């Protein structure tokens, strides 16, 4: 919900004027590609969606729609008090980083399945229960393989201290944990050239101890072994949220 008056009067920023409605279910709008088919809506359990990867239609059942998102569980009583109708949003982000430990809810990765024929929700559950993950991306060659930044195992939110590789077709996952005081960012999958098997995974690694940023390069075929190379940048980039890479012309 957005309280527009303080924002219009210049008293608060847009995010400071927002609040999360804890008792309202989010609505998923399913719009068919075929103009001849009707669109419909489905209610999901209370959660706040932050990021989403492209829709994956089920290859095993054509009547199902499967997709993956990451977000906050609004049933988490540590961050969303029981009985409260709403809570403030993140507020105005400026200056120093927030203390993520205890002030920002942990984000989880969810698998959502919709029955297209009966227009109802079949499943909305955590992919790796209990693991805090952010910024899901897909492998450029294998959309069923997802990469996410992984946070500490104690339930703390950002920043990421590892990378999780998830094969949703096999329901398996592998985690690479960064060294002490090194933080991980959003990942980018790049296809290998000349017919080589697998893909490269690129991500920025911020070394807080040495105040240095490196480009970490992973091989999807040996992901669990860690980066096959690191390129140290000339200037340190403090831990960020999102990033992208552009192919050279």
Question: Total helix count?
Answer: 2
Class from helix and strand fractions: mainly beta
* Integer tally of domains: 2
What fraction, in percent, of the residue positions are helical? under 10%
Low-confidence stretches: none
Order of helices and strands: HEEEEEEEHEEEEEEEEEE
Number of strands: 17
Mean pLDDT: 87
The largest β sheet comes out as: 5 strands, antiparallel
Question: What's the N-to-C terminus distance?
Answer: 44 Å
The coarse silhouette is: globular
Strand content: 35-45%
Radius of gyration: 20 Å
Detail the topology: elements first, then pairings.
Blueprint: H1 4-8, E1 19-21, E2 27-30, E3 40-43, E4 47-52, E5 56-57, E6 64-73, E7 86-88, H2 100-103, E8 108-115, E9 120-126, E10 133-138, E11 145-150, E12 162-167, E13 172-177, E14 182-191, E15 199-207, E16 212-219, E17 229-232
Antiparallel strand pairs: 1-7, 2-3, 4-6, 5-6, 6-8, 8-9, 10-11, 11-12, 12-13, 14-15, 15-16, 16-17
């Amino acid at each position: 919900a957005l309280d527009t008056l303080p924002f219009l009067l210049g008293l608060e920023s847009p995010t400071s004027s927002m609040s999360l409605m804890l008792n309202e279910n989010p609505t998923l709008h399913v719009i068919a590609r075929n103009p001849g088919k009707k669109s419909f809506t489905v209610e999901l359990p209370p959660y706040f969606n932050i990021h989403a990867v492209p829709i994956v239609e089920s290859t095993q059942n054509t009547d199902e729609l499967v997709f993956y998102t990451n977000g906050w569980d609004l049933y988490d009583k540590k961050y969303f008090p029981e009985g409260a109708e709403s809570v403030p949003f993140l507020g105005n982000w400026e200056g120093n980083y927030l203390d993520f430990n205890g002030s920002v809810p942990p984000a989880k990765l969810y698998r959502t399945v919709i029955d297209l024929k009966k227009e109802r929700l079949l499943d909305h559950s955590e992919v790796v229960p209990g693991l805090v993950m952010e910024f899901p991306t897909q492998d450029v060659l294998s959309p069923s393989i997802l990469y996410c930044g992984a946070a500490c195992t104690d339930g703390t939110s950002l920043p990421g201290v590892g990378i999780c590789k998830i094969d949703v077709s096999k329901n398996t996952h592998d985690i690479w944990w960064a060294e002490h005081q090194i933080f991980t960012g959003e990942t980018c999958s790049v296809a290998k050239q000349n017919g080589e098997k697998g893909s490269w995974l690129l991500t920025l690694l911020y070394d807080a101890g040495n105040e240095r940023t490196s480009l970490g390069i992973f091989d999807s075929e040996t992901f669990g072994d860690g980066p096959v190379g690191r390129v140290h940048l000339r200037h340190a980039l403090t831990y960020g949220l999102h990033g992208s890479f552009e192919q050279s012309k």
